[in-house]
C-alpha cells in the first residue's frame, strides 16, 4: 500500500489543456493561412512567422524576466495571438511594424494586465488597432505581393469597404460577393477567404472548443441592421450580404470575438455581447470615419464583459421549475 | 420511447467498462472478517456482541444508534475475536467487529434456495420492518438507510419511485452484471418498494450503453407483468445517475435547492438496493453481500472481475483473489473514478456500499500542475447543477461567504465534471467542496440562531 496516491475525486481528467485548445484554434486558422501563403507568397510566410515568433519571445521574456512567473508563459497562446495579429495586417506590412504590433499585443494588452486569463482587451485586436491609428500608411496599403500561384488577376486598389465609404454604396452594388467570399486577395491577410475561415470555425465547433452563439448573434445583428438601412435607402447604405462578406467580419466574429478571456462566460451573455458588437460594427461602417469597425467594436464590447458577466448567469438546477 | 437525459451540463468521459462481460463470481471466505459499524449514512451502529460470542451468517452484531442508522449483520459464521477501533478505507478509526471464520453456518429462516419468490407482500409496515431489520441501505453510493427513505414523513407522498440502473460512472459494471444475471429479483424488489410507497408509478432507468441489461430487464418485466412499472432508456451521459439529475431526466421535475427528492414526489433507489430489498423481504437475507468490480485502465482482461463479496472481507484479500494489486497502479479507487474515494488503507474491509477496486495508472490519474484560468467556461458548461465553478472558486479564495452562498456553492454535488473539464487543471472540486462546507455551516448556524 506504499507509494499510492491518495487524493480527492475526481480521479480522471479530460486531458483538455490550455495548450491543446490553443492548438485547435491554430489548426482552425490553417486553411486561411494556407491560402495567404499561396496568394501572397513569401511575404505572408514572413509576416505570420515573425508575428508568432515575436509574440512567443516577448511573452516568454516578460513572464520570465519582468513578472518572474514562468508559468504565465504559454507558447501556443502567444503564437495564436501572433498569428491572429498577422492575419489583421496587409501582406506588405514591414517587419518593424509587426514587431511593434507584437509588443503592444503581448506586452501591453496581455502581460501588463496580469498575463494569461487576466487581460481585458483582446491582445491581437489591441495590437492591430494600435498599429492602425499609429501607422495608417502601412496598415492600409493594399498591394498584392507575388504569390506561389498565378492567374489571380487581382488588382490592388481600395477594399470593398473603403470603396463603399468613399464612393457610396452604389459603387459596390455590382460586386461579385460570392467570389469575394471564396477568394478575395487585396485586404488584410485574414480577409482572404470567408469560406476558409468558416471551415476552420466549423472545426472549432466540432471540437467543442467554442460555441456558436457569439458569431451567430453578430452575424444576425449585422444582417438585421444592414437590412433595415439598406431597405430604407439602398443608394446610401450597403446591403446585408455585402456586410457579411466584406472586411474582417468573419475573422473577427469567429476568431477574435470568441476569445475565451475577453468574452462573456454565459451563453446569453455571449448573445448580448454579439448583438452589441454587430450593432457597433454597422454603426461604424455606416456613420464612422473608418471604413471598417470590427476591431473597434470588439474592443468596445470587451470593456462590457465584466458587467455582462455580473448580469447574466446560468440557469441553476432547482431554482426555476418546481 | 425516446432516450431521456438531464438538461443541464454533463460530460462524456470514456466508458472504459472493460469488465462488462465478466460474469459475477462468488469470492471464497477469508480466514477473518472485520465488520465496520459505520457502513451507512448517519449514526454508526452499536456493536451488540462481545469477544468470544459465536455468530452465524445473518446474526445481528450491530444495532442502529438513532433514527438514521442501520442494523449490521455478521457476514460469516464463527467466533467474535474482538470489538474495537480499526482503520477504515480512508484511514479513519471506526469500531469494527472482528470475526474468525469457522464454517459457513447460516441463521435459520434465511432462504438460501435460488427460487424466485414473486408474490408481493401487502403488509406495508411488516415489509418496512423487514427492510429495517435486514440492514438495507442505499447502494448507489450514499448508503442512506433504505427504510427511512421508503417511509416519507407524514404530509409528503411519493408518486414515482425511480430504480437507478444508469451506472453512469466509467469503469463500474457491477450494476450492469446484476441486471443481466438477476433481473427478476431486482424487479420484484422494485415492486416491493412500489407497494411500500403506496402503489406509485415505478420507472427503472438504464443508460443506453448497457443494451444487454436493458434487454434482460425488459424480458424479466414482461414475464412478471407488474402493473404501473416501466423501463426507461437514458442517454449515456455523466452524471445521469445523480439523484437530482435522474429525477429531472425521467420526471422533468427539479428538486429545489436544499430539499429532498420526496418534495417533488420522487424516491430514487439503486438497482442493487432493489436486489437487497428483495433478499431481505422475500428471502429473509439481511444485507451481507453486494457486487463489486475489479478493474483498471491498464489491467489485462484476465484481471478484470465482478465479484459477489461479503461485507467485512479485507480489501487486500479481495485484491489477492483477483491476482493482487497490479504493479502499474498508482492509485486505488473504491467507487467510480469520478466520485469514488482513493483507498488509503487496503487492509480495511469491504462495506455494504463498496462497489469497486479500481486500479488507475499514474498516466490516467495524475493531477497536472495548476495553471491559470482562461475563462473558457467549460466548468460552468459541464456543471449538472448549473453552477459557475470558476466563480465559486474565486469567491472561495477571496473568502466571500455571502458571495459563495449567492452562487449556490451549497448545491454542489461534487460530481467532478468541472474539474474533469478544466483545461487549466484547477482543483475546482477541492475548493468547491470547501466552499460548500463553509456555506452549509453558515446556513445551519443561521437556522439554529433563528430558532
Structural class of chain A: mainly alpha
**CATH level-four homologous superfamily name of one domain in chain B:** NADH-ubiquinone oxidoreductase 51kDa subunit
What distance separates the N and C termini of chain B?
49 Å
CATH class of one domain in chain B: Alpha Beta
Class by helix and strand content of chain B? alpha/beta
Rounded mean pLDDT of chain B is: 94
Order of helices and strands of chain A: HHHHHHHHHHHHHH
CATH architecture level-2 label of one domain in chain B: 3-Layer(aba) Sandwich
Write down the overall geometry of chain B.
globular
Could you tell me how far the N terminus lies from the C terminus of chain A, measured between alpha carbons in angstroms? Answer: 48 Å
What oligomeric state do the depicted chains represent?
Answer: heterodimer
Low-confidence stretches of chain A: none
List keywords for this structure.
heterodimer; A: 322 residues; mainly alpha; globular; B: 451 residues; alpha/beta; Rossmann fold; six-stranded mixed β-sheet; four-stranded antiparallel β-sheet; 14 helices; 17 strands; 29% helix; 20% strand
Short description:
Chain A is an all-alpha fold. Chain A has helices at residues 18-40, 42-66, 75-87, 95-110, 123-134, 136-139, 160-167, 177-182, 194-206, 213-232, 240-245, 249-256, 267-287, 294-311.
Describe this structure in words.
Chain A has 322 residues and is an all-alpha fold. Chain A has helices at 18-40, 42-66, 75-87, 95-110, 123-134, 136-139, 160-167, 177-182, 194-206, 213-232, 240-245, 249-256, 267-287, 294-311. Chain A folds into 2 domains: 19-139, no CATH class; 159-192 and 210-310, no CATH class. Chain A has 14 helices and no strands. In chain A, helix 3 packs parallel to helix 5 (123-134), helix 4 (95-110) crosses helix 5 and helix 9 (194-206) runs parallel beside helix 12. The termini of chain A are far apart. The mean pLDDT of chain A is 91. Among the domains of chain B are: 124-282, Rossmann fold, CATH 3.40.50; 378-448, no CATH class. Chain B is built from 14 helices and 17 strands. Chain B has helices at residues 124-133, 146-149, 174-181, 183-196, 211-224, 243-251, 271-282, 315-321, 362-365, 378-382, 389-398, 401-406, 417-421, 428-450, and strands at residues 24-26, 32-36, 46-47, 54-55, 60-63, 72-73, 78-87, 93-101, 160-165, 201-207, 229-234, 266-270, 289-296, 305-310, 329-334, 341-342, 356-361. With 451 residues, chain B is of the alpha/beta class. A 6-stranded mixed beta sheet of chain B has the order 1-14-13-17-15-16. In chain B, strands 2-8-7-4 form a 4-stranded antiparallel beta sheet, with no helix packed on it. At the A-B interface, helix 1 of A face strand 15, strand 16, helix 9, helix 10 and helix 13 of B.
